[in-house]
Design brief:
single chain, 81 residues, mainly beta, ATP Synthase, domain 1, 7 strands, 0% helix
Length: 81
């Protein structure tokens, strides 16, 4: 899957991932390969990116929106803390 994390002023992350956990408005949820298409609002919280079992990155976002379609994930964050 391809993930992009964007803020109004820069691209924070772009790359291939195996799983992404985002802070949804009704609770955090994980996106895996072949996830159903979705658009969801995001709260302030941690985005956890797994590129492999050993490689994990975390970003704290200040709200935003996530879109998933055809194994492409775009996180539009209001800001990164």
């Amino acid at each position: 899957m391809n993930l992009e994390i964007l803020t109004p002023d820069k691209k924070v992350f772009e790359g291939e991932v195996t799983a992404v956990t985002v802070p949804g408005t009704l609770g955090s949820f994980q996106i895996l390969k072949d996830h159903a298409p979705i658009i969801s609002t995001l709260e302030d919280g941690e985005v956890i990116i797994k590129a492999s079992k050993a490689d994990e990155q975390r970003f704290y976002i200040k709200g935003g929106v996530v879109e998933v379609i055809h194994n492409k994930i775009v996180v539009l964050a209001e800001g990164i803390a």
